Amino acid sequence: MNSFGTLFRVSLFGESHGEAIGVVIDGCPPGVPVKSEDFTADLSRRRSGSTGTTKRHEADQPEILSGVYNGFTAGSPVTILTRNADRISSDYEDFRQVPRPGHADYVATIKYSGYADLRGSGHFSGRITWGLVAAGVIARKIIHPSEVEARLISAGGLTDIDLAVERAMADGDTIGGIIECRVKNPPKALGEPFFNPVESVLSHLVFSIPAIKGIEFGSGFAAAAMRGSEHNDSIISGTGATATNHAGGINGGITNGNELVFRVAVKPTSSTGVEQSTYDFGKGGMTTLRVKGRHDTCIALRMPVIVEAATSIALADLFLADRAIHGSRGLIHGSG
């Protein structure tokens, strides 16, 4: 259950405080140019360091173990990993008996019969998204010239993100945020209805990112208050361009060539410095918990590049599926 994709298949491995984390990409087409420096920009955007992010500092240097030869993908599985070094596992020793409210501590203990690695939140940690970002770097090359860009548009209910983070840090609490993602020049006709329309595939992968709690495309939930004549996007040219984009670039689960637009909701980090009540399974009664350790005040600050990676991966898989099923298309159905 740690793999995603049909043709461009991404498998994540590792735990937050294990020896290493990484990704295996199967089905990557041969001939894609790849070098270690290609990963620097996106992995740096994902790293901590800015105000409101965890004080854990990892080098995050990628090691390409397989699937790349003489600077190009070879057609075999691509394996990329990074070593974990900055680990303070003692901060997590109590969470098996006293689980953090809102976190996966309790359900992980039950599901894996007490064997789950909860250090640094283990396989449930946001750190595991390192592999998604690495895979996203290669996926971007496959969907080029499409351009994927996400940005944090609000945090803690405020558009003034710095102020929201400052207030949360002063209170020792955490906040979430809203991220908007746009894909410029997306290929036309991606999506395989009924069960693999673009929204379904994107949502599946985006919801696999820890802390994502909601998604909407185009006008999203606001469409429920609109009339059809208002929501419909009038086609204004032979290229399929539309006057508005309430559909978010998707009709019938298929990309129409207009900008692909969606937004995601990121919940507040569960590990908060505010004292909370929880159940102590060791003592068999309620207790109070103030979470120690190094945690993000606003995990949404580091989320845009992860959303970009997930989007690129999903579109790369759909792109390869479209070519496998339909081959080259006529002008009216061209990739545009």
Label this structure with key terms:
alpha+beta; about 325 residues; disordered C terminus; about 25% helix; 7 helices; about 20% strand
How is this structure best summarized?
It contains 7 helices and 15 strands. It is of the alpha+beta class and 336 residues long.
Describe what you observe in this structure.
- The protein is α+β, with helices and mostly antiparallel strands and 336 residues long.
- It contains seven helices and 15 strands.
Give me the secondary-structure topology.
Elements: E1 3-4, E2 9-14, E3 20-26, H1 40-46, E4 63-66, E5 68-69, E6 72-73, E7 78-83, H2 105-111, H3 129-143, E8 147-155, H4 161-171, E9 177-184, H5 198-206, E10 212-217, H6 228-231, E11 250-251, E12 254-255, E13 260-266, E14 276-280, E15 285-289, H7 304-326
Antiparallel strand pairs: 1-2, 2-3, 3-7, 4-7, 5-6, 8-9, 9-13, 10-13, 11-12, 14-15
Helix pairs in contact: 3-7, 5-7
Mean pLDDT: 91
Strand content: 15-25%
Main sheet: which strands, in order across?
A: 1-2-3-7-4
The residue fraction in helices comes out at 10-25%
H/I helix tally: 7
Distance between the termini: 34 Å
Main β sheet profile? 5 strands, antiparallel
Low-confidence regions: 330-336
Structural class call reads: alpha+beta
The total strand number stands at: 15
SSE topology string: EEEHEEEEHHEHEHEHEEEEEH
Specify the overall morphology.
globular
- Rg over alpha carbons: 21 Å
